[in-house]
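Batch queue: ligand-bound targets. Current item pairs a single chain with 2'-deoxyuridine. No template structures supplied; prediction is de novo from sequence plus SMILES. Inputs echoed for audit trail.
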Amino acid sequence: MDRETLIQEAKKAREKAYVPYSKFAVGAALLDDAGTVYHGCNIENAAYTMCNCAERTAIFKAVSEGVRKFKAMAVIADTDGPVSPCGACRQVISELLQQDTEIILTNLKGNYMETTAEKLLPGAFSPEDLHE
Ligand SMILES: O=c1ccn([C@H]2C[C@H](O)[C@@H](CO)O2)c(=O)[nH]1
Ligand SMILES: [Zn+2]
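Prediction returned. Tokens below.
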């Protein structure tokens, strides 16, 4: 699947966003090694801290289906420049996507940047840090 198609999938995912509080809709499309796309949107809650970002929705959907190998993820929002994943999502991306999984950050205007899990969170706390 090419980059443009994955971005279109992220845009479709964004339409499902449940954002009555922020009104800031985000979509994510996560492509696994087998070619399946997992869609994610942000889902908010009146208890604000329960809000879940689009990226984590997509990742948790895939991982809960037993998928652990990912090729790419596209994320889209109506931002000035390419959308910037929050710190919580960077941490989750760092552990559950491969370090070289391609991450495409974009916006509705078509600006985009390509990065990787590794570049999004240098020095991440990792499972190895738990070992004595
Ligand atoms: O990369 C991002 C940044 C923010 N949000 C969500 C969280 C919240 O619902 C809203 C405003 O922060 O956007 C995402 O889903 N992904
Ligand atoms: Zn986030």
